[in-house]
Amino acid sequence: MRNIESVTYNGEKIILLDQTKLPLEEVYLEIDSVKDVWDAIVQLKVRGAPAIGIAAAYGVALGASQLKEDDYESFAAKYEEISAYLASSRPTAVNLFWALNRMKNTLVANKEQPVAEIKQILLNEADAIKKDDAEICKSIGEHGLTLLKDGMTLLTHCNAGGIATAKYGTALAPIYLAKEKNMDIRVFADETRPLLQGARLTTWELMQADIDVTLITDSMAAIVMQQGKVDAVIVGCDRIAANGDTANKIGTYGLAVLAQKHNIPFYVASPLSTIDMETETGADIPIEERSAEEITCGFGNQTAPNGVKVFNPAFDVTPNDLITAIITEKGIISAPYSESLKNLF
């Protein structure tokens, strides 16, 4: 597997792989301001719940390093403003808030230290968040690998691979580990409209690793299932409620319904940081709505009449009764999710 790092820090600037340029260009942005981090998250230059969390952690550490205040109270007040600003970038992916909360806890735990030392401690914590994510994703992959058999064909939606995390990804992690073991695993990748994360990102990433991938439009998932070409569906997620309801890229719910109809296992791969025990059900998950232009004028080409009304939710929620199992770094859990998720913590 080629180790493509979507978020790094070089000591002065955050380096981001601009995922809006893929698959035609592999462009890396050098970011030295909190506003640019916020813009990168909102504009999907960095995307994928874990990668957003990593970027936010580095963003808040970068912002803190640029503060002039040298007493803790003033420094902490400014830090809170930076953290709140980054938290406003995207509402659905809980990893954003998890990472910012972990960074805040680090700040508070070191309040007796000189401000100059706190700044370095915050950068160290951002590094730790990234390192932990890579290890977590590999563990998810190892557990998920137990569900795979040589010769299987999987269907995935959106992009939950290495460029959406620190390494390996979540949904794609078992596939990468299978490749390392010379297993023959084939993949159908949904195009994932309207922003084509499957077409632009997942196919590119899997082809970089020489994995057999076939691109289909979202509306073709039903026929490949009907024809018996899919052995399992595996997706990532942006938030899991305490009852197991799962928010992921728009179109995931429809896949889960189709999978149940065709008796195909439907797996969700998720780090514990994406599980939100404070959110009781999927009905409580805030769903981001994005601009109409993403649908009416995607990638600069107008495909709808002027003035047409548009509904553009970025995510949908898959009810827990459609999910065969959730793959975490601590193992694979199944229903009843209200109990099994609680036991993880």
TrEMBL record:
Broad EC category: isomerase
A Pfam family the protein falls into: IF-2B
Pathway: Amino-acid biosynthesis; L-methionine biosynthesis via salvage pathway; L-methionine from S-methyl-5-thio-alpha-D-ribose 1-phosphate: step 1/6
Source organism per UniProt: Lysinibacillus contaminans
Catalytic reaction equation(s): 5-(methylsulfanyl)-alpha-D-ribose 1-phosphate = 5-(methylsulfanyl)-D-ribulose 1-phosphate
Annotated signal peptide: none
Source lineage: Bacteria, Bacillati, Bacillota, Bacilli, Bacillales
Quaternary structure and partners: Homodimer.
Transmembrane segments: none
UniProt keyword annotation of Aminoacyl-tRNA synthetase present: no
Gene3D superfamilies registered for this protein in UniProt: translation initiation factor eif-2b, domain 1, Translation initiation factor eif-2b, domain 2
Protein name from the UniProt record: Methylthioribose-1-phosphate isomerase
Family statement drawn from the similarity comment of this UniProt entry: Belongs to the EIF-2B alpha/beta/delta subunits family. MtnA subfamily.
Marked site: Transition state stabilizer: 158
Binding locations of substrate: 47-49, 90, 197, 248-249
UniProt-annotated catalytic positions: 238 (proton donor)
E.C. numbers: 5.3.1.23
Top-level taxonomic group: Bacteria
The protein's role, per its UniProt record: Catalyzes the interconversion of methylthioribose-1-phosphate (MTR-1-P) into methylthioribulose-1-phosphate (MTRu-1-P).
This protein's UniProt keywords: Amino-acid biosynthesis, Isomerase, Methionine biosynthesis
Record GO terms (molecular function): S-methyl-5-thioribose-1-phosphate isomerase activity
